[in-house]
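SAMPLE LOG
Freezer: B-3
Tube label: C17
Construct: single chain, 306 aa
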Amino acid sequence: MNGRLMQELEELGGEIRPASLRKCDEIIIEQPGFSAVIALWGGHLESFIPSGQEDLLFQSTNQGGEGRFGRRHFGVPVCWPWFGAHEMHADFPAHGLARYFRWELIEAGRFKNGDVKIVIRLASEDHPLIEEMWSFAFELRQVFRFSNKGFRVNFSAANLSEKAMPISEALHTYFNVSDNRLAEIHGLDQVSYVDKFDNGNRQLQQGVVTPCELMDRVYTSAPEKCEIRDVGLNRRLVISTEGSNSTVLWNPGAELAKQRTDMEDEDYRRFVCVEAANALSDAYNIPPGEIHQLKLKVKCKSLVDE
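STRUCTURE (predicted):
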């Protein structure tokens, strides 16, 4: 990393913490109104804490497997260029490649209104193993925007190959909740979803989603906004998306959590995944030379601030 970039990061109250996750650095941002952590391993937004609040994002204490493709449950993992298991290669890692390689910090600064800006990059040409597993050349970028009101992630994928690139994807966000049995997800009433815990049958959402446990649902043609209401933390997390036609809800519930070796038994109680996605019938192709953007915006408000 060049000296100028380090200086720009330091001016934001930022620093690089070396070799803290999978032997990759983390970017730490400390501001009067918030703190944020970005793990360069996988390009994870790991933590975002508004002043006076608990973290908006969940982190399991379980470190997962030691291998490159060992999963951890925390923050905002990027699922790309496939969501879930690979259709053709059962031995390929779940949820794609982007979350298992080191990203590069390329920009640190501010937007015109003073919000903090961090940009990271992952290019297929920098990683021979990616080129072995995925025949399309690409460049990914994440632009993070932080303020005391919340955060934004602008994820962009450029197809640098000469053929259309098939994509299913998600920003697999683990939201921190006080108790998933009491948390409520609003904004999906009357939206159809595929229930993976019910043999892939299609259901129609009726009213508010609660309790938020034992869920693996893909809401297709989903609205661009929903919110988590958490009475225990007295807050609303307003979630807005662009470039996302699916919303995925996931929580393994008690029995499946106990069966997992990459999650503590009680972890499921403290998170609900609400994912900006393009999955199942919402998968798409990026034409040669073009870019697709997937945007996520999260605002934190008090429950009484309707």
